[in-house]
Amino acid sequence: MRQINARPPAIDGKSTNPFVLAAYAELFDVHHLKQVDEIVAAAKVFSSIETAAGRVVEDVIPPFYGWAQINSPGYTVLSEIDSARVVDDTVELVALKSGPMCISDSMVSQIANAISTNWIEWSNHWNVDKVRYIVGMNYSTAKNSNKKDWHIVRLAELKTTATDLAISRSCTQPDGRRPIASSFFEGTKNGKSLRVETLQGRELWAHIAGVDDAFLQICWAMAKCLNTQAIPIGTNFSTGEMDEIIRFASSINAPDVSDAEKQWLVFFARHFVDRLVISPKNDKI
C-alpha cells in the first residue's frame, strides 16, 4: 500500500503566489514572515496530502469490499481504471478521483478518449459482453460537483456515438426547451453494451460496498483511528458550519461513543451530504 508523504513547501517562484500572499497579509493582519511561513506550510502540506490520500483510498477501500485493484502504466488500455469486479455478465470498472474539484479539462478529454477507444477491449479482457464504467468522486455530492465528471460522461457519449455505438439512453434528456443532464448513458454495438456514469461520495461507496451507509462505515473507521478530543458547544470558529457540526454531534444518541468520536464522525460525514439530518427510523445521518 502507498504511504502518504507530505512534501515541505518552498518559496521557489512556482509554489506560492506573491500577489495572493500580499492580499492575505493585508486582509488577515500578517506582520512578519514567520506568520507567512506557518500559513504557507499548512496550505501546501494540505494540498500535497490530498492527492496522496486519494491514492491510499484506491489501495484500501475498494479491495476491502471485494474489488480488484488495477495497476497499469499510463496511456495503456487499462490506465484509466483503478478498480474492477465482474458481476454476472458485466464488468464494473471505476476511476476514482480525489475530490469534486480535481478533474481538469485535459482529464475530461483523456478519460473520454480512453472509454471510446478501449471499452470493447475491456469487454474482451474480462470476457463479458457488458461494460459499466464509473467516474467516482471519493467525497462530495452531485450538487457540489464542478460537473467535470459529468462532462466526461457527455464527451464519452459523443465519441462512442461517432464509433457507431447505438445510444439507448442519453446523458441529456429532453425536458421542453431545455435538456436535463442525466448521470449516465447506455448504448450497444455488435452484441456488446456500455454504460458510463458518474457517482459522487455517498452513492459511490454505497455501490462499491453494496450497503447504503458505507460512507458512514468509512467515516467511522477514520474517526476511530485518530487520537481525538472533544471541544465544547459554543466554541468560536472561523470555518463555516463547524459550529453546526459540533451541535449536531451532541444530538446523536450513542452512549457508547465518546463525544470526540461523534464530532469527528459528523465532521467527516458532512463531506458526503448536502445537509445534516438524522433519519428518524435508525438514527443514521
Which labels suit this protein?
single chain; 285 residues; alpha+beta; type ii restriction endonuclease, domain 2; 3 domains; 7-stranded mixed sheet; two-stranded antiparallel sheet; 8 helices; 9 strands; 42% helix
Describe the structure.
By secondary structure, the protein is of the alpha+beta class. The protein folds into three domains: 18-60, no CATH class; 67-207, type ii restriction endonuclease, domain 2; 213-272, no CATH class. The protein is built from eight helices and nine strands. It has helices at residues 18-27, 33-64, 105-125, 148-162, 201-209, 214-225, 242-250, 259-269, and strands spanning 68-69, 83-87, 90-97, 130-137, 166-169, 172-173, 180-181, 184-189, 192-200. A seven-stranded mixed sheet has the order 1-2-3-4-9-8-5, sandwiched between helices. The chain has a two-stranded antiparallel sheet with strand order 6-7. The longest helix is centred in the N-terminal third of the chain and has 32 residues, at 33-64. It is globular and about 65 Å long. The model has no long low-confidence stretch (mean pLDDT 91).
